[in-house]
Design a protein that fits this description.
The protein is α/β, with parallel strands linked by helices. The protein has 23 helices and 20 strands. Strand 17, helix 18 and strand 18 form a beta-alpha-beta unit. Helix 5 runs parallel beside helix 6, helix 15 runs parallel beside helix 17 and helix 19 packs across helix 20. The chain is globular and about 80 Å long. It starts with 6 loop residues before the first strand and ends with a helix.
């Protein structure tokens, strides 16, 4: 039973698509990914060079400079939430790139950590609408992966003109401190470095951390000097009220004072060496991380930009998993779904992906039906696979390109509502780490059932091709104007003016829905965690799977000899 039957999958790119098609696909996706890179660069610039210069004149580093110094040399921090508030304009015609806070997975002293850093080039690190939610989302990722959490604090408090959108509510700014408490209660190490302004909520944020450092420029106060002057007519400085002299030597709210940013980052790195090292190498055994036989960059030539065009889902897996080796579990049933196990960065992970194109219809021999849809057998198959991954402690990756559930009388008679509910229950109650990737379509209840963000995957990634919606723009326009159309979806009105109004309304509805499906809209409102290039998708998956194995002892991880997968293989495929 210990044998995990990984077999080679995939085909050389030249055997799959001709050069012209590959070039056209690369060009179409390249245009989208050029936009992604340009937006990333814009976000990384904060409020621009003049604000970076202002920070440097104070002898301080910017948030991303601090992150770069904290991260191990030769490694890359993987940001999440880069495009929160993208395109939003606030009072005073002001913008808040990345909601004024950097949240990123970073490798520090060989361990993955979650870093939460106020962007001091954007309103001195103020909290904007969605900033608290973004911080809490990062804290939840850290909690569920048991990642040490590092706060790089330089926060002037709430952006007051929009306080009503970030102060109250179940996920208002105060919920950050509850998340601090939950991380502490679950034994997740928290280290805070205070570099400058730390006012009101920003002052509370570091306090529950296990270790708090302050530079000589830093202060932590419930209310700053300006507010105290107005309320009590007292003249003083914020540094005098709550600087390191007060909090390190009098209040005990901080532990250590250091001269500057560089010294503080050195201290954080030193503290992290004192924590247990990653368990990932233990779970790898003698198997190292190996690249796929087919380059991940080829995905940009394989995935058609037109969501109506099909591709071979197996070829996607072949460009994501180690050595392009994969064990497909239960291939005999639910052909529209592919599920199985592979190594990613030397560590086992489960994969579920929607097959595209046409597959054989088991109910009508000799006929085919479209894939990218959940039918009864496929639903039952991936529900059983999801339960097995959870039971075995294998992290699970969902690769979505789905149009939804099968519909019609036959589907209802087969009990798809019940089977779908079983899958939703499974994914809702799993404790094994789950990660979701929206490759292209993420439509209707299919998006939910395949561990879409409402079902709480630890991280949801989107490609530039991703489209989240209940239904496509044209279909929705037809549904919205259904009473004005005949059985062939033609407009029934005879009056030219009325026909023109209906045509205009349908076009506008379709255009609005198509615009709403832009992945940057989803990222802006936190309906997805990050948009990634196809060529960097494996980089993120390798990191996330390793994070799932980093902490030992907090969740069950079975050895392959006693995997539930082996039982499924015998029960479904024999030998009997």
């Amino acid at each position: 039973m210990a044998f995990v039957p990984l077999v080679p999958i995939g085909t050389a790119l030249g055997s799959l698509v001709d050069e012209r098609t590959a070039a056209d696909t690369r060009a179409a996706i390249g245009t989208l990914e050029d936009k992604l890179r340009a937006k990333r660069t814009e976000v990384e610039g904060g409020w621009g060079p003049s604000y970076v210069e202002r920070v440097h004149k104070k002898g301080k580093l910017t948030a991303r400079e601090r992150l770069a110094k904290l991260t191990d040399p030769g490694t890359r921090a993987l940001e999440v939430g880069t495009f929160v508030n993208d395109g939003e304009v606030f009072p005073g015609n002001q913008r808040s790139p990345a909601a004024g806070v950097v949240t990123a997975f970073a490798r520090v002293e060989g361990r993955w950590v979650m870093v939460i850093a106020n962007d001091n080039t954007v309103a001195s690190g103020a909290w904007w609408p969605r900033t608290p939610e973004k911080i809490q989302r990062a804290q939840m990722m850290a909690l569920r992966l048991r990642l040490p959490t590092v706060y790089l604090v330089d926060c002037s408090g709430l952006f007051l003109p929009e306080q009503s959108k970030s102060f109250p509510g179940a996920r208002g700014a105060g919920h950050i401190f509850k998340m601090n408490s939950l991380l502490s209660a679950h034994g997740v190490p928290q280290i805070a470095g205070v570099f400058g302004d730390c006012i009101a909520g920003g002052g509370y944020m570091p306090i529950i951390s296990d270790r708090v450092y302050m530079t000589e420029q830093a202060y932590m106060v419930i209310a700053g000097a300006a507010l105290i002057k107005g309320a009590k007519s007292q003249k003083m400085t914020s540094l005098g009220i709550g600087g390191p002299e007060v909090h390190v030597h009098e209040s005990g709210c901080a532990d250590v004072r250091v001269p500057d940013d560089d010294a503080l980052i050195t201290c954080i790195r030193r503290d992290l060496t004192r924590l247990p090292s990653s368990a990932a190498d233990f779970y790898r055994g003698d198997i190292g991380a190996l690249e796929p036989r087919f380059a991940p960059g080829e995905l940009a030539a394989l995935l058609p930009a037109d969501h109506r065009e099909a591709y071979d889902a197996t070829q996607v897996l072949a460009r994501l998993v180690d050595q392009s080796l994969f064990w497909e579990v239960m291939p005999e049933v639910g052909e529209e779904m592919i599920c199985g196990v592979a190594r990613v960065g030397g560590l086992y992970a489960g994969f579920v992906i929607n097959r595209q194109g046409l597959v054989d219809d088991p109910l009508q021999p000799g006929r085919q039906r479209p894939s990218g849809i959940l039918y009864r057998a496929g639903i039952a198959k991936i529900a059983a696979f999801s339960r097995a991954c959870n039971d075995d402690g294998i992290p699970l990756v969902w690769l979505q390109d789905i149009s939804g559930f099968d519909i019609g009388r036959e589907a209802e008679a087969q009990g798809l509502l019940g089977y779908g509910s079983s899958l939703i229950y499974t994914n809702s109650t799993n404790t094994t780490p789950m990660f979701t990737v929206l490759l292209r379509k993420a439509s209707g209840a299919g998006y939910y059932a395949m561990a879409g963000q409402p079902y709480d995957p630890i991280v949801q990634l989107s490609t530039c091709l991703a489209r989240q919606s209940v239904m496509e723009g044209r279909t929705l326009a037809i549904a919205a104007y259904n009473t004005k159309l005949d059985d062939d979806f033609q407009i029934t009105a005879k009056d030219p003016a009325e026909r023109a109004a209906i045509e205009t309304g349908m076009r506008e509805t379709e255009a609005r829905i198509e615009a709403d499906m832009d992945p940057f809209v989803a990222a802006r409102q936190m309906d997805t965690d990050e948009i990634v290039e196809l060529g960097e998708l494996r980089t993120y998956l390798v990191a996330l799977v390793e994070m799932a194995y980093q902490g030992a002892g907090y969740r069950r991880v079975k050895n392959p000899r006693i995997w539930s997968m082996h039982d499924l293989r015998v029960l479904v495929g024999g030998p009997r």
